[in-house]
C-alpha cells in the first residue's frame, strides 16, 4: 500500500478528465482515430466511467475518466478516486482537473490506495499519479498517512487492539514525531483521581488507562480528547449480538484524534498540542459497575448510572476535567458516542457542537473546501434539565429517548471547565464502499479541523 505520489519526473500517461457536457468539444480536438475509438466504445463522460485509448503498438496511449455533470458530482466526493480504482496499473498525469478541486481529488487518489491488509491481502487501486501542478504533494501525503492511521486503528479487532495496544500505538506515534507520553494505569487511576475511567474499565482483563501525549513548546494550547473504548459489550446493560458486532470501532474517537495529531505534528503547526485518551474495555464481570450506581467524577460532580452502555461519556468526563485544568485555548473531544447522531445524520456527516460561532464558521468553510462534511447541532441549554436526575448532579442516560446526542454533548460540556470547547459525535465507519473509502474504519472531521485550525487559533 503506497499513499504517495509518483516523482514529478516519472514518465506518465495522460489521463483526461472529461465532463459529459464537454465531451464533444474535447473530441473535436483529438485525432480522428481517437475520436472514433471513444465514440465506438460508448464513452459518454458519465461520472466514474473509464476508457483506455490504445496506441498503434497495442499499448496505452491515454486514459479517459468521466467527470459526469454538476448534478452527479454533487451526489458524492473523491470522483478521481473512483476513476483511479478502475484504471490499469501505470503512472498517470491528470488533465482537465478543475483547479478548485485539485487538492481534494488528488488526496482522494492517494486514499484509493488504502487497504487494511493485516489479516489478508486486499486489492487497492494500482494506478499511480504524478501530483497535479500547484498541489502541495508533501502535505497531502501527510494527511493521507494520518487518515490511514485512523483507519488501521479502527479496523483492528479488540483481540489485537485492547487498551494496552492502543497505548503502544500512541507511544509509537509520539516516538515518530518527538512527542512525550505519560500513562496512568489500573489502580493508579484511583490514586490520581480518575475514578470514572477506572470504574468503566475495571471489569476488563486489561487494565484501564489514560494516555497523555504532549508536543510543541510554543503557540496556542490545543487539547484533543478521544474516546478509547476498545470494545463495548454494553456492560451489565448488555448489548444484543446485532449491536455488538461493530464495537471494535468504539475507540474511533481516539483513532481520529491520533490521526489528526499525526497531521498536526508532521506538518509542524505552531501549537502546544495535547492528546488525552481514556482507554478501556467495557466488559462484564463481578466487579462491573451497575445501573443505579452513583459515581463521583474528577471535578466533584456526581453521576447516576442509569445505563452502563452509556460509558463513553463517563470516561471522557474525567479526561475533559483533566484537560480543562491546563486551561487550553481550544479543547475538542471526538467520540463514537450515540446512536441518536446516526439516526439524525447517517454515517457520512460528522455532527459537532460548539458555543463559538466563529469556530463554527471557520470549520464549516474548511469542511466544504476539503470535502470532509460536518453539521452543527446545538448545545441546547433548555435540555440541561433532562440530564439532572435529582438524586445526583447528572444522569448518564436520560430516559425518554429524546435528543440523545444533544443530551450527551450537554453532559460532556459540564466537564469542559467553561473553556472554548467543541464536541464531535462521529460514526467512524463506512458501511458500504465509496470512492476513497472502502468499507470499514474512516476518519471524520479531522481534515476539516486541520484546515480550520490556522484561522481558529490565529496561526
CATH superfamily of the largest domain: Zn peptidases
Instruction: Report on the biggest sheet.
Output: 9 strands, mixed
- The unreliable regions are none
Based on the structure given, which CATH architecture of the largest domain is correct?
3-Layer(aba) Sandwich
Percentage beta strand:
15-25%
Strand tally is: 19
Determine the fraction of residues in helical runs and give it as a percent range: 25-40%
What is the overall shape? elongated
Total domain modules: 2
**Computed structural class:** alpha/beta
Report, as a whole number of angstroms, the end-to-end distance.
Answer: 34 Å
CATH domain class name of the largest domain:
Alpha Beta
Question: Remind me, CATH topology of the largest domain?
Answer: Aminopeptidase
Query: How would you state the average pLDDT, rounded?
Result: 97
- Helix count, per DSSP? 16
Concise structural overview:
The protein is 35% helix and 20% strand. It has 459 residues and is α/β, with parallel strands linked by helices. Residues 307-314 form the Cytosol aminopeptidase domain.
Break the fold down into its secondary structure elements and pairings.
Layout: E1 13-18, H1 23-28, H2 32-40, E2 50-54, E3 60-66, H3 70-74, H4 79-86, E4 90-95, H5 102-111, E5 127-129, H6 137-155, H7 163-177, E6 180-185, H8 188-191, H9 195-201, E7 209-215, E8 221-226, E9 228-232, H10 241-244, H11 252-267, E10 272-282, E11 294-296, E12 302-304, H12 312-324, E13 330-335, H13 339-345, E14 350-354, H14 357-370, E15 374-377, E16 394-395, H15 404-413, E17 421-425, E18 429-430, E19 440-441, H16 446-457
Parallel strand pairs: 1-3, 1-4, 4-5, 8-10, 8-13, 9-10, 12-16, 13-17, 14-15
Antiparallel strand pairs: 2-3, 6-7, 7-10, 11-12, 14-17, 18-19
InterPro entries: Leucine_aapep/pepB (IPR011356), Macro_dom-like (IPR043472), Peptidase_M17_C (IPR000819), Peptidase_M17_N_1 (IPR048816)
GO biological process, one term: proteolysis
Keywords: Aminopeptidase, Hydrolase, Manganese, Protease
